[in-house]
Amino acid sequence: MTRITPILLAGGSGTRLWPLSRKSYPKQFSRLLGDETLFQRSAKRVVSSPVVKFESPITITNSDFRFIILEQLQGVGIDPGAVLIEPAGRNTAPAVLAAAIYASRSDPEATILVAPSDHIIPDTLAFHASICEGLEEIENGRIVTFGINPTRPETGYGYLDLSAVPSGSAVPLKGFVEKPDTEAAKAMLDAGTYLWNAGIFLFRAKDMIAAFRTHAPELMDHVSSAIEQGHVDLGFFRLAAEPWGKCENISIDYAIMEKIDTLSVVSYSAPWNDLGGWDAVWLEQGSDVEGVITSENATAIECKNVLLRSENEALHLVGLGLENVIAIAMPDAVLVAHKERAQDINLAVSALKAKGVPQAETFPKHHRPWGWFESLVMGERFQVKRIYVLAGAALSLQSHRYRSEHWVVVEGTAKITVDDRVTLMTEGQSIYIPLGAVHRLENPGKVPMVLIEVQTGAYLGEDDIIRYEDIYARS
User: Fold this and answer.
1) Are residues 245 and 331 in the same domain?
2) Which of these, 7, 187, 194, 431, is most buried using a 10 Å CB contact count?
3) Do 239 and 341 fall into the same domain?
4) If you average pLDDT over every residue of the chain, what do you get?
5) For residue 54, what are the β-bridge partners?
6) Residues 332 and 412 grouped into a single domain
7) Do residues 60 and 95 touch, judged by C-beta distance below 8 A?
């Protein structure tokens, strides 16, 4: 049985799901639906079953997310495999090529499945059956893309124009269609020869590499150099920044798929959702008879066709007499939009970025390799933070030029170094860190540790850190 190497694309920002999804912590790592994140669900979807066998995944992401990926994969019992670090986002074409070259170095005959890490595909066995169908095509040197049988005239997806009505076997592709207007979407739905473009691909690495050599030789040169000059860093593989920076910012559809004549489409008719906007979340969750969906911390009164969601336990969101409205409340931002504008949420993000509003891209909870922190109160010369440290994790040995800190342990046990003094502290105990003192915070326990940090000083920015030692090799 052919063994497949899955490639998980995990570097996107998901701006249409703002304010829950942001550049600093995008939707694939969030628990949008259920107890597992979209990334975890995607990774579990490419674990071997009776009908298809998978190798450990290769994940493509950026430096900020590398430890999140390890934590989330280990959280669902999956071997993280290789994690490739992009020095900068360059869209899907360079990412797919880098994965193909990387996989082919250990197996020149490698079979690759490329999948976004933010889709919902509930029926894993049906998905694996479609992959098996695609395997028959790639044996003949073809590249396979997967199309979703449309169930409605959707204007938020691109479409695949097939050469024939799908009938249980792969069909050659005529062309790609950009996101249509409503009338065009209705016409394509009626025609029966169009599928939604899922952005999932199956191919032999050598065939994809050959396609790049023919149709995107400059990209081939730059990505090859980024692999050759890359290096291992704490178990991750960092692509070389200089050649990677020369790569064109282009999707795999534009760079390769629209130019080749060896592309086949396998249709997939089981449930699928790319969660590309709040309207897609609405459809996936399922509403009551009035079209109402509310989260645990939200209440709808005399509303119709509304999605009310609060991500803050201390903030209860109430809708009264609303219709066709999406309202999403976060600790630091609230979105209120008409349902028909769900695909335009990125316009709000662009407007906030233009105004220099930090909420446009920065999540209120700042994730780090050791855990996370969030700012609770901010003043001109003080800040109060909550710091969450994973079991066995440690912050860097550091000092500050402009601030002192006071730490109060509220959960678990902390091992605290201040200059040449090391102290074990438990719930209710506190310690003062003078300005300039060399210090470190560690969690020696087997459960997470939480403390409250009170900073005072002339400057409280995160760049006021001088690191002396760091187990995560941060500068």
Assistant:
1) no
2) 7
3) no
4) 93
5) 4
6) no
7) yes
Give kind and range of the element (H or E) at residue 393: none
What angle do helix axes 92-106 and 205-215 make, rounded to 10 degrees? 130
Task: Find the domain containing 416 and state its range.
Answer: 365-469
Q: 229 and 105 in one domain?
A: yes
Q: Is residue 54 within 8 Å of residue 4, measured between CB atoms?
A: yes
Q: How many domains does the chain have?
A: 3
Of 310, 331, 354, which closes a domain? 354
Picking from 342, 296, 304, the residue whose alpha carbon sits closest to that of residue 322 is 304
Same-domain status, 255 and 371 = no
In angstroms and rounded to an integer, the radius of gyration of the C-alpha atoms of the chain is 24
Q: Give the residue carrying structure tokens 């449930």.
A: 271
Of 268, 287, 309, which marks where a domain is finished? 268
- Residue 166 CA to residue 149 CA, distance in Å, equals 9
- Give the pairing of strands 58-62 and 82-86: parallel
Q: Which residue has the tokens 């493509």?
A: 60
DSSP H or E run through 215: helix 205-215
CA nearest to 268, candidates 158, 164, 168: 168
CA distance 375 to 470: 23
The Cα–Cα gap between 299 and 316 comes to 8
Same domain for 12 and 138, yes or no, is yes
The CATH number of residue 260's host domain is: 3.90.550.10
Terminal C-alpha separation, the chain: 45
Banded pLDDT at 34 (limits 50, 70, 90)? confident
Are residue 137 and residue 9 in the same domain, yes or no? yes
Q: What's this model's pTM, rounded to 2 decimal places?
A: 0.89
Res 168 pLDDT > 90: no
Check pLDDT > 90 for residue 140: no
pLDDT digits (tens, 9 = 90+) for 146-159: 999 999 998 888 99
Domain CATH number, residue 451: 2.60.120.10
Q: Helix, strand, or coil here: 33?
A: coil
Omega of the bond prior to 94 within 30 degrees of 0, cis?
Answer: no
Q: CA 475, CA 289: separation in Å to the nearest integer?
A: 55
Give pLDDT, residue 166: 80
In angstroms, rounded to a whole number, what is the distance separating the alpha carbons of residues 457 and 174? Answer: 64
Q: Do residues 96 and 208 both lie within one domain? A: yes
pLDDT digits (tens, 9 = 90+) for 338-353: 999 998 999 999 999 9
Question: What is the model's pLDDT at position 448?
Answer: 96
Q: How many CB atoms lie within 10 A of CB 178?
A: 10
Is 475 part of a structural domain of the chain? no
